[in-house]
Every structure is written in structure tokens, then in C-alpha cells.
């Protein structure tokens, strides 16, 4: 296919123009965030639309890190995201394994329920969840967020894990079980080491999802010291709505963990979605 | 439930001593999957399904946290209010506009990207990682970034649009009721193209290469190969992805909530942001749940129609 397309010089030119378009469209907004974050305050207005700042400073970043509650938000988000990612992956691995290896009664119903949770507006349950959490006295606690995010992410993570388990030959466990392992032992000793990429992808996926969730966090957290990053940044924005440099610096810093995770897991995630998609 | 008759049947053919072993094996066989499933099921049940039912029941009640003594069952009153609520109908129209344009551009750009990624070129791995990056950007941050880009004080976009003659002067389109919706739509396109590209790329890679070779031998033009081979093969995948994405985008409130909060003058209020602002700002849980039920019903009708159409049109 590529041979046919590359023959014509105009086609080649068109192709590279399209590649450049996609690259600029994807990266320009992030570049702009970084650019304003690095521009010294006094130049932000005078050099508003220049592509490169004439001077570069890190003072916005140091101010954000040392003089605001930024580090606390960062820590809260890290706790919530890691917690949700860990529990989701654990539970989704179990569920995905069950879907992949067993034929059992109720399987279709469980799968249907999981699909339904992906369909209806999650905002629909924001009011009941608020009331339940309030009655349990868990408002402003990170635990409530971890539990909610874990439940929200389990269905997709389960399907993702299932596609990874499906890719591992069943014979491997059967052989281990022949040799006297229980199924659980076979799972731990033989299957899990092989699904490490899948586990990594699922961890990363849930981590990024939990890192960016805003609406439930906004509803359930109102105390400054329990705020996660999105909520913190949003209050930051509405409180100091003129300090552009600092806001964008905070934005860049918020981007770092999810981008790092994304770079590590990108390949596996694409691979997992691809194998799942081809089957479906 | 159905365990007993099976065991009874088993007893007839099996000698007495073996029964207990069979039964426990059978039970174990039926129960074992649930050892692995139960944490997931319990959590989904407790955190999603139970609140969902409670949420539906809220839509028949008056639950305003700011008026704690006025609460109670009120039947269909919320729904009657909804029917005559002008904001609800505006939000419905906006939801259609927002979903249609977001999905159209995401799909077309995603398809283009997938076709590019299905060819060979220098630095493809790096390119792929970079163009997929917007997907990893937390949504609140995409929203803030685009809100800033549209701000004439620090963003370049108004100046560029003015230079191109699209805007008469560089002003913030997020404050203009006629144009405001295009702000969140742009952010949504930016954020959603990678997802379409990934799923469509997977489908493209599953098309057998021999078909293209045969087409080339027969002298088909690139356009013919695209419409006669690529599109028909992608059709089922496109149908399912577009359906799921439509539902997802119609529910997606974060971008609009952060960028415009539904304003100016409700010009960007979609149903899901209306649910959120009613619950979060007014603390009127009953009415918020009513809007949510309405949105759910609309989405269900949409899904049923689309599945029916697919059954009629796609014979795969």
C-alpha cells in the first residue's frame, strides 16, 4: 500500500504536510503552556503573541512549588491516583481473568452490567453519591475518592485485562496445574509474570483517568488540604485569575506525571486496545 | 438455582460413593469464577448500581439541600417542571450541536491520522507517541489550556483569527454567545482525535494486504481503493466506535464546565453541564436527577435506533 502512495511526488508532499499539520495541532497548545510558564511576568503582555519569549525564567515554577499549596494538591492527587490505580488493577485483573478463562452462569449478565456502566451519564449518580458519602462522614476524605474512582474504572480495565489474558495460551496454566499447582498458584506463578505489560497498561490508564477527574472531586472535596490537583488548580485559577505565568507553570507541572506514565505505557495501551478491537 | 436438577441427574448414573465428590466439584466449578469476580462486582454494585437506582428515585422527590424541610415524594412534578423549563430545551439543542460537530471532526481527523499511521515513514514511532499525547493530558488541563489560547491577552488564537478575517477584531470567542460553543468543541477535537486514530488504525491493520495488491493489479485509483476496500472494511468498526463515542461525548461535561461554565447566557449549557451545575451550585438533587434521567432516556433511544439501523444496513 505504501508503495502505491509514495510514487507520486505530490502525494509524498501532501503526506508530509499532513504529518506536520497533525504534529503542530497536537503539540502547539502544550508548547504555548510551557512558553507562557517560562516567560517573565513583565513580558507576558508585551510579547503576548510572539512564538518565542525573548527571555526565559523559572521563577514562575519556583513560586508555584514553594509558595502555594501546590505540593499538597500534588501529594493528594498522587495518593488518590495511585490508590485507585492499584485497587482497580487488582480487581480488574481478577475479573478479566474470570471472563477470559471461565464459562459460567451469569457471565453475560455481568458483562452486560459492566457495559451499561460505560453508557449512562456518571453524573447521574453524583447526587446520590454525595449524600451517601456525606452520611458516612467521608466528605473531604481521599478514601471516598479512591473508592469511587476504583469502581468507575473497573469495567474498562476489566475488558482491557481480559484482552491481555486472552493473548496468553491456556496450555501454560494447564501444564502448571498438571504439575500439581492449584489454579491460583498457576495464576500467580505462570500467568501474572506474562501479563506484566497488561498490568502496566491498566495501571497507567487508571492513573491518568483518576489524575484528571474533576467533577466528582469538586463535589466531594471542599477543604483546601484535601483537594486533588484538578480542584486545586481550578480554585487557584479563580482566586488568582490574573497571574498567568504561575497558572501555566502549575499546568505544566500537572502535566508531568501523566505524560511520564503515558510515554511508558503508550505502546502497551495501543497494543491492548488493538488486540481487543480486532477481535470485536 | 439450576444446580439441583443437574446433580440429581448425575446421581442416577453415578455410584453412591462418588456423589459427594461430584457435587463439590460441580459447586466449585460454578463458584470459582466468582472468587475472581466478586471484588469487582461488589464495588460496581455498591458504588454505581445502587446509587443509580437511588438517583432515579430522587427524580420523583424534592431534595434540595438548601431547603431541607421541603423534601419528600412529589411524583412527576420534577418532570412537569422539566417539560416547561426553557433552559432544558436550550441545553438539549446545545447537546446536539456539541456532540455532532465534536464527533464529526474527531472522526474525520482521526481517520486521516489512522491512514497516515498505516503507512511507512521516517520517525513513525516518535510521531505516534507525540500525536497521541493530547489524549494523556488531563481534561481539566486541556480545558484550561484552550481557554487560555482563546484569551486575547495571552493567547494567539484571537489574533490569528482576526488576521484571517474570521473575527472582526481579536476578542475572546468564549464570551460571544454565537461562537462560544466552538471553544470547547475545538478542545474536544484536540483531545479526542487520538482515540479515533487508535481504534481505526487497529481496524485498518486487520484488512488483508492482498486486497490492495489485487486492486493495484487491476489498476484501481487510490480513491477507488479507499471507497471500495478501506471504507467497507472499516464500516462495522466505525459504526460501533461512533456510537460509543457519541454517548460518551454527550455525557462529557468537564471541558465546557471549565471553559465557560455553561455561559454566556446558557449558550454553551449542555445537558450534562446542566446536571452538574444544578447539583453542585444549587444543590437541587431532585431536579438534577430528573435532567439526568431525561438524558439517559434520550441516549437509550439513540442507541436503540442506531443498533436497529446497523442491523438493517450492515450485513456483516
Summarize the entry for a quick read.
The complex is a heterodimer of chains A (280) and B (316). Chain A has 14 helices and no strands.
Keywords, separated by commas or semicolons:
heterodimer, A: 280 residues, mainly alpha, MetI-like fold, 0% strand, globular, B: 316 residues, 2 domains, two-stranded antiparallel ribbon, 14 helices
Strand and helix map with partners:
The complex is a heterodimer of chains A (280) and B (316).
Chain A: H1 2-6, H2 9-38, H3 41-44, H4 59-67, H5 70-101, H6 107-119, H7 126-135, H8 142-166, H9 170-178, H10 183-194, H11 196-212, H12 215-220, H13 229-239, H14 244-279
Helix pairs in contact in A: 2-14, 4-14, 5-8, 5-11, 5-13, 6-8, 8-11, 8-14, 9-10, 11-14, 13-14
Chain B: H1 3-13, H2 19-58, E1 61-62, E2 72-73, H3 77-83, H4 86-117, H5 124-131, H6 133-136, H7 139-149, H8 157-163, H9 182-205, H10 209-217, H11 222-251, H12 254-259, H13 271-280, H14 285-313
Antiparallel strand pairs in B: 1-2
Helix pairs in contact in B: 1-2, 2-14, 4-9, 4-11, 7-9, 9-11, 11-14, 13-14
Describe this structure as you would to a colleague.
The complex is a heterodimer of chains A (280) and B (316). By secondary structure, chain A is an all-alpha fold. Chain A has one domain: Orthogonal Bundle (MetI-like fold), CATH 1.10.3720. Chain A is built from 14 helices and no strands. In chain A, α5 (70-101) runs parallel beside α8 (142-166). Chain A is globular, with a radius of gyration of 23 Å. Chain B is mainly α and 316 residues long. Chain B has 2 domains: 3-49, no CATH class; 85-313, MetI-like fold (Orthogonal Bundle). Helices cover 72% and strands 1% of the residues of chain B. Chain B has helices at residues 3-13, 19-58, 77-83, 86-117, 124-131, 133-136, 139-149, 157-163, 182-205, 209-217, 222-251, 254-259, 271-280, 285-313; strands at residues 61-62, 72-73. Chain B has a two-stranded antiparallel sheet with strand order 1-2. Chain B is globular. The chains are: A mainly alpha (280), B mainly alpha (316). Chains A and B meet through α1, α2, α5, α6 and α7 of A and α2, α4, α5, α6 and α7 of B.
Amino acid at each position: 500500500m505504501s508503495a502505491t502512495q509514495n510514487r507520486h511526488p505530490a502525494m509524498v508532499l501532501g503526506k508530509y504536510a499532513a504529518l506536520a499539520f497533525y504534529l503542530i495541532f497536537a503539540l502547539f497548545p502544550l508548547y504555548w503552556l510551557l512558553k507562557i510558564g517560562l516567560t517573565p511576568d513583565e513580558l507576558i503582555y508585551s510579547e503576548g503573541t510572539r512564538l518565542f519569549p525573548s527571555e526565559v525564567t523559572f521563577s514562575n515554577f519556583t513560586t508555584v512549588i514553594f509558595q502555594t499549596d501546590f505540593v499538597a494538591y500534588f501529594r493528594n492527587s498522587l495518593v488518590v491516583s495511585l490508590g485507585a490505580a492499584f485497587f482497580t488493577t487488582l480487581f480488574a485483573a481478577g475479573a478479566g481473568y474470570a471472563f477470559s478463562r471461565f464459562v459460567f452462569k451469569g457471565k453475560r449478565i455481568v458483562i452486560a452490567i459492566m457495559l451499561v456502566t460505560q453508557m449512562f451519564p456518571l453524573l447521574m449518580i453524583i447526587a446520590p453519591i454525595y449524600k451517601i458519602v456525606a452520611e458516612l462522614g467521608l466528605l473531604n476524605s481521599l478514601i471516598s475518592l479512591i473508592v469511587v474512582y476504583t469502581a468507575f474504572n473497573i469495567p474498562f480495565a476489566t475488558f482491557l485485562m481480559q484482552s491481555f489474558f486472552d493473548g496468553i495460551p491456556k496450555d501454560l496454566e494447564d501444564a502448571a496445574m498438571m504439575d500439581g499447582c492449584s489454579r491460583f498458584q498457576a495464576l500467580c506463578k505462570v500467568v501474572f509474570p506474562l501479563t506484566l505489560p497488561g498490568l502496566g497498561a491498566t495501571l497507567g490508564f487508571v492513573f491518568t483517568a483518576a489524575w484528571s477527574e474533576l467533577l466528582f472531586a469538586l463535589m466531594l472535596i471542599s477543604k483546601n488540604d484535601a483537594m486533588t490537583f484538578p480542584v486545586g488548580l481550578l480554585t487557584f485559577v479563580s482566586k488568582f485569575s490574573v497571574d498567568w505565568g504561575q497558572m501555566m507553570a502549575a499546568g505544566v507541572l500537572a502535566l508531568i506525571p501523566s505524560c511520564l506514565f503515558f510515554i511508558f505505557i503508550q505502546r502497551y495501551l495501543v497494543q491492548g486496545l488493538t488486540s481487543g478491537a480486532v477481535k470485536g | 438455582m439450576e444446580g439441583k436438577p443437574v446433580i440429581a441427574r448425575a446421581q442416577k448414573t453415578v455410584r453412591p460413593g462418588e456423589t459427594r465428590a461430584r457435587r463439590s466439584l460441580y459447586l466449585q466449578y460454578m463458584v470459582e469464577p466468582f472468587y475472581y469476580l466478586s471484588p469487582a462486582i461488589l464495588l460496581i454494585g455498591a458504588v454505581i448500581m445502587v446509587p443509580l437506582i437511588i438517583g432515579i428515585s430522587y427524580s420523583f422527590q424534592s431534595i434540595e439541600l438548601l431547603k431541607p424541610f421541603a423534601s419528600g415524594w412529589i411524583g412527576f412534578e420534577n418532570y412537569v417542571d422539566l417539560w416547561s423549563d426553557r433552559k432544558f430545551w436550550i441545553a438539549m439543542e446545545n447537546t446536539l450541536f456539541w456532540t455532532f460537530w465534536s464527533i464529526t471532526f474527531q472522526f474525520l481527523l482521526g481517520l486521516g491520522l489512522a491512514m497516515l499511521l498505516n503507512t511507512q515513514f521516517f520517525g513513525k514511532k516518535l510521531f505516534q507517541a507525540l500525536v497521541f499525547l493530547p489524549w494523556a493530558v488531563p481534561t481539566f488541563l486541556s480545558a484550561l489550556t484552550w481557554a487560555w489560547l482563546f484569551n486575547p491577552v495571552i493567547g494567539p488564537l484571537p489574533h490569528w483569527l482576526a488576521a484571517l478575517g474570521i473575527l472582526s477584531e481579536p476578542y475572546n470567542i468564549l464570551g460571544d454567545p454565537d461562537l462560544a460553543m466552538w471553544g470547547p468543541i475545538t478542545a474536544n477535537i484536540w483531545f479526542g482525535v487520538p482515540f479515533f486514530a487508535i481504534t481505526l488504525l487497529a481496524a485498518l491493520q486487520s484488512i488483508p494486504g492482498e486486497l490492495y495488491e489485487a486492486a493495484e493489479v487491476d489498476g484501481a485509483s487510490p480513491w477507488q481503493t479507499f471507497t471500495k476496500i478501506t471504507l467497507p472494511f472499516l464500516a462495522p468498526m466505525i459504526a460501533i466506535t461512533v456510537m460509543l463515542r457519541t454517548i460518551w461525548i454527550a455525557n462529557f461535561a468537564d471541558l465546557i464546565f471549565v471553559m465557560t461554565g455553561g455561559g454566556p447566557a446558557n449558550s454553551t449549557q449542555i445537558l450534562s453541564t446542566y446536571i452538574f451545575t444544578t447539583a453542585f451550585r444549587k444543590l437541587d438533587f431532585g431536579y438534577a436527577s430528573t435532567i439526568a434521567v431525561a438524558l439517559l432516556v434520550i441516549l437509550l433511544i439513540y442507541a436503540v435506533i442506531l443498533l436497529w439501523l446497523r442491523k438493517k444496513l450492515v450485513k456483516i
